[in-house]
Amino acid sequence: MTADAFDVIVIGSGAGGGTAAWALAERGIAVLLLEAGPPYDPFSDYRLDQPDWETQHFPAKVPTKGRQTTARMQRLNAKWDDLRSWNRVRGRYNPGDHRADWGYSHVVGLGGSTLHFTGEAHRMHPRAMQMHSRFGVAADWPVDYAALEPFYLEVERLIGVAGPTDDPIRPRSAPFPLPAHPLSYGSQKIAVGCQKLGLSFTANARAALSQPYDGRPACNYCGNCTRGCPRTDKGSVDVTFIPKAVATGNCTIRTEATVLHIETGPDDRVSGVVYIDATGATHMAKGDAVVVACGAVETPRLLLNSANPHTSDGLGNESGQVGRHFMETLSWTSSGLHDEPLGSHRGLPSDGICWDFNAPDAIPDIVGGCRFSAAVHEADLTGPVKYATRVVQGWGRQHKQAMREKFGRALSVGAIGESLPNPKSFIDLDPKEKDGQGQPKARIHSHLDDEELKRLSFMAKTSRAILKASGAGDIFEEYGAYDGFQPTHVFGTCRMGTNPEESVVDPYGRSHRWRNLFITDASVFPSSGGGESPSLTIEALAIRSARHLADRAKRGAL
Amino acid sequence: MRRRLFLAVAAGWVLLAQKRRSVAAVIGGSRSSAYPLTALPAYLDTIIPRDNSGSASDFGVDRQFIDQASRSRQHMRLLRAGSKWLDSEARKIGAGGFSDLDPSSREVIVERAATARIRSLPRVFFDRTRRDAFRAYYADPLSWERAGYEGPPQPKGFPDHAEAPR
Ligand SMILES: Cc1cc2nc3c(=O)[nH]c(=O)nc-3n(C[C@H](O)[C@H](O)[C@H](O)COP(=O)(O)OP(=O)(O)OC[C@H]3O[C@@H](n4cnc5c(N)ncnc54)[C@H](O)[C@@H]3O)c2cc1C
Ligand code: SF4
Does pTM surpass 0.90? Predict the structure, then answer.
């Protein structure tokens, strides 16, 4: 096997890897970016102009179901029945007595899960980064908000984030590069509802262009970001960092290239990677450094699968922390029918947000915050098929009539809350199930304890109250994380910290032991935040880590 | 379901996995393997009748059903078993088959299926066909205008999204 040689090999091209690849290439470093999935063409792959658009979801080219396994989920308890997922037409979504595994929601493709993401672009609440010293839970971030702020701003400018002018919680050194999007007519009703309850509801920070920017057109409010944006105004990594990385002339991209393991060399250094291509042929690539960014489930898997006699518990796992502290998406959505026609299928998904409970001590008697946002688009109530099958009951003439009356009246409020780590939530290697290359699959263990469920209960009650105050108290559907595991935000499985015994990487994402091994994805988060969407933070951290790596490389200190 | 992404897929798994078991259980021993599907167009037109917009069969939903079911033996068996049930209910009131009944008698039989015991053959047949019929019918742009939908989402988008709907 001959080996190509590069300065740095980056594994995974999502929020963490695509950004790191650009930040390195931009510094003149020769990067090899290896991505397990294929590229997507927004203009031909995302068919929102087709008659059957609504029955097609995100057009995953690589099926993700079954890529990981899930350990048996917890038994459901009647005392939390109020948190069961249900629909007026269809009944309970999970009729069983255990939490259901609906699968880790992610994308295997160039640009990673950002291809499918909504595009909320949030900065962390500064106080949500000190959960251990303030509340004795999770771990403190070894980097504070002030140190991250310039990187946040840089990412916002690179991808084009539209947001409001004032943010009392997260100090800004400069305004958002683009003005906030106007609230849709439906979201304006939620704003009124929040006001009635004494809550704020402001324009959300969105990686979706409110004006043409950087050669991309403005959003036209089609409402379907999670199906893939065919206009390229959504700031996913494939239309932002990847073309910028390629334009440097320093980034070689290989898609459908799955890394099987990372090789180690002398002096606590990694030497390269072994990967397979689409034909099944095995290759080796050598690098002066390796950056891992496979997402918080696949990164620990790759490290554990890279065990060898020099690192028998898995690469970078000297602390035994690889895979621990898995944090997921504690989420809730309630949907109701408004009394007036709203045309609520129109607009930018999640255009408005209430941050009032985002601080870690904002929910009475519960540690960890949450936020509430307009969610009718993310609830996929944007076309007549979903109304006919989920909103309108019955059949016959009456159903047709009701379709006419009810279409466009659905409103949804979605909440995401802090996910605190617990010993029963972690990633390990499945002892039985292997992938096509004979590599053990990642096995996800997920558990929600009562403290999490209390937070979720607050989220559910408040979502219902907001809907009611907004004029949409006729609730027809609710769903949440209690009885169905389907996270979209995953974090924490290769924690960053200053203490090598309690963390996997240092404050710059560098392995405590392996001097030229870095991690730049959501695995490194010490805590999840109070419902903030993570990509902007992943990207800010990735640039910070990549610059640190580049500086070390220049100094010969890798 | 995703935090907020509706689990069209996810809920589908649970429900389908469950349905697959129940479909197998309800049609397992039935001797309807070659039963004709003559009741199907009339049945679908009862679920989605013609008024000032077309009925299910006007939009070719019955043909789509048969196309789809011909790709899955179990699905086809369910359609045949359901059609047989519809005809046998029609015969109980003296008709030759479901399609010979007048609209209000058809409605009585469909209502019986809609409210039948969960996991019984008529109920499984009704739940599955109702969902599939609406999916097929409302995925047809001809149905959109009457439902008040001015899509598809692209290429025009909804630039008037901040205003009250017209
Ligand atoms: C439906 C949905 C909506 C979301 N909405 C938002 C939102 O509004 N805002 C937000 O901030 N976040 C959102 N997210 C979450 C966001 O997309 C993720 O947090 C983010 O993309 C994670 O970045 P990552 O780099 O950690 O992993 P990913 O983006 O998942 O990238 C990992 C990449 O690594 C590749 N890979 C894995 N293993 C290997 C291997 N062995 N070899 C080579 N390549 C490999 C994968 O194929 C993948 O491309 C959403 C996610 C989903 C699914
Ligand atoms: S709503 Fe805007 S950002 Fe989202 S897919 Fe449509 S055009 Fe793209």
Answer: yes
